[in-house]
Amino acid sequence: MTADAGTYLYVVARDSGAPSPEGLSGVAGAPVRAITRSGLVAYVSTVPLAEFGEEPLQRSMEDLDWLDATARAHHHVVEAVAVAVPAVPVRLVTVYSGDEQVSGLLEERHDDFCQALDRITGRQEWGVKVYADPAEQAEPAAAQESGGAATGPGAAYLRKRQAGLRSREEAWRRASARAERVHDRLASVAVAGRRHRAQDPQLSGRKEWMILNGAYLVDEERRAEFVRTVDELRGEGGELELTGPWAPYSFAALDEGGEP
């Protein structure tokens, strides 16, 4: 490998001796290949440091079009590998100086990778988003008291504004309680569950509140039960969006200090 190229790491799996996926391309259209060491295999591409070096990456990460294309290519490789074997995805744009450094990573973090692989083998990640319409969550405002209350347009405006704020706060409390119930119910079917930060409305494209952005690691034999539980929760009101199954991004990270 030349000094102006680096090794981009996508995902790590156990080395089963199976050939690498044929014709698989990754970021920047680079072909995907395998590096094996200590019973593990890392799926990588050779990338130009002119684009994936530290300073160029700082600029590129602010380019949303570049970031979107790179994330899609990264995810494509991870999914292609994860469909075939249990695999530990690596964070986006993880670039090493060369194959030797990746090989050393497999040796040094062997036990951590194996623990992560044990955690996800035979399991899949599912995503559940729950939306709530603030207007549907709010209770009708209480009738305004007239006796002894200040009169005039200014006082009426303040009373209306205070009632609106109370109504919005109550709507949020109701929505939050609903999110807790949904999460607890789904987590009871899953091996593990995590609540991610709700997406910005500009990303979700929704005017409703996203009250839950959950990820759930589910045993393959309980897949139908998990999907059925989501359907039952839909029947209780609110909009639930089920996605997956995915490669277990939310649950495959190495122990603290071990993630590449």
From TrEMBL:
Q: Would I find Nucleotide-binding among this entry's keywords? A: no
Keyword terms of this UniProt record: Gas vesicle
List residues traversing the bilayer.
none
Q: What is its main location?
A: other
Key word Oxidoreductase present: no
Give any Pfam family that matches.
GvpL_GvpF
Gene Ontology annotations for the cellular component aspect, listed alphabetically:
gas vesicle
One Gene Ontology term of the biological-process aspect is:
gas vesicle organization
The domain of life is Bacteria
**Compartments where found:** Gas vesicle
Q: Which family does it belong to?
A: Belongs to the gas vesicle GvpF/GvpL family.
* Name of this chain's protein: GvpL/GvpF family gas vesicle protein
Q: Which organism is it from?
A: Nonomuraea deserti
